[in-house]
Design a protein that fits this description.
By secondary structure, the chain is an alpha/beta fold. It has helices at 7-14, 18-35, 43-62, 80-92, 110-123, 133-144, 153-157, 175-188, 201-207, 210-216; strands at residues 99-103, 128-132, 160-166, 192-197, 222-226. The chain has 2 domains: 7-62, no CATH class; 74-234, Rossmann fold (3-Layer(aba) Sandwich), CATH 3.40.50.300. A 5-stranded parallel beta sheet has the order 2-3-4-1-5, with helices on both faces. α8 links the parallel β3 and β4. The longest helix is centred in the N-terminal third of the chain and has 20 residues, at 43-62. The chain is globular, with a radius of gyration of 19 Å.
């Protein structure tokens, strides 16, 4: 049976298939109705349908490129001063509880390096979850407001949570609140967090409330790695 870890982002990709999307939509509707205690929804039928959906998702996962493969072509283009910093972080993990912020212009390798870290730590047996800020906010809101009964354990219990593209998510009602819930929970429990963002420190200070900014940039618990240079995707 598929666990909650890494499930949501994979579902987003798998939904490109019409067959999977139709099944996933049925599961989501039933979960929402169960949350409202709708007596017309049979829980056993829901669980059976959910299992079928997860089996399809597992089949999709198995069709992906083997986990031990990682394209290092881009890695060679990144400034060695940057790679040395996060390689030191990797060598100390999980004994280091510091969070890391990758900041810099678009295309400089922040997301690539985050995925590289996910790959290395996963190969070592750690549970690493990577999500975009948009998906994190959406998934948390779906759970908190009853549209998805699945508890997002991966945000709170993974050895490392990677939040990609902080600052590009739309500013909508309660978005900062649910983002704070995740960041604060990990901060309070000394759970490692890695954030990538195109925003500068000052821009993050302006974009988010003080309690989010303070936890991200706590000098005792975080380290900032600045990515500079040209867009690696067009070199």
């Amino acid at each position: 049976m598929l666990t909650n870890f890494d499930r949501y982002d994979l579902i987003i990709t798998a939904r490109k298939s019409k067959k999977f999307r139709e099944l996933d939509d049925k599961v989501r509707v039933m979960a929402f109705e169960l949350g409202k205690k709708n007596p017309k929804i049979n829980k056993d039928e829901y669980l059976a349908l959910k299992e079928k959906r997860d089996e399809q998702l597992m089949s999709f996962i198995n069709s992906l490129e083997p986990a031990d493969k990682f394209d290092r072509t881009t890695y060679q283009k990144i400034d060695p001063k940057i790679t040395q910093k996060f390689e030191r972080y990797l060598s100390k993990f999980p004994n280091t509880k510091k969070s890391v912020i990758f900041t810099g212009p678009t295309g400089t390798g922040k997301t690539y390096c985050a995925k590289y870290i996910q790959h290395v730590l996963t190969q070592k047996g750690f549970k690493v979850h990577l999500t975009t800020t948009f998906n994190l906010v959406k998934r948390m809101k779906d759970h908190l407001f009853g549209q998805d009964s699945t508890v997002p354990y991966d945000f709170f219990e993974s050895d490392l949570l990677i939040i990609d593209d902080l600052g590009v998510e739309p500013t909508i009602k309660n978005s900062d609140e649910v983002l704070y819930t995740v960041i604060n929970e990990r901060y309070s429990n000394d759970k490692a967090l890695l954030i990538t963002t195109n925003l500068s420190k000052d821009q993050i200070s302006t974009r988010y409330e003080d309690r989010i900014f303070g936890r991200i940039y706590d000098k005792a618990k975080s380290a900032v790695i600045i990515f500079n240079g040209k867009d690696l995707r067009i070199e």
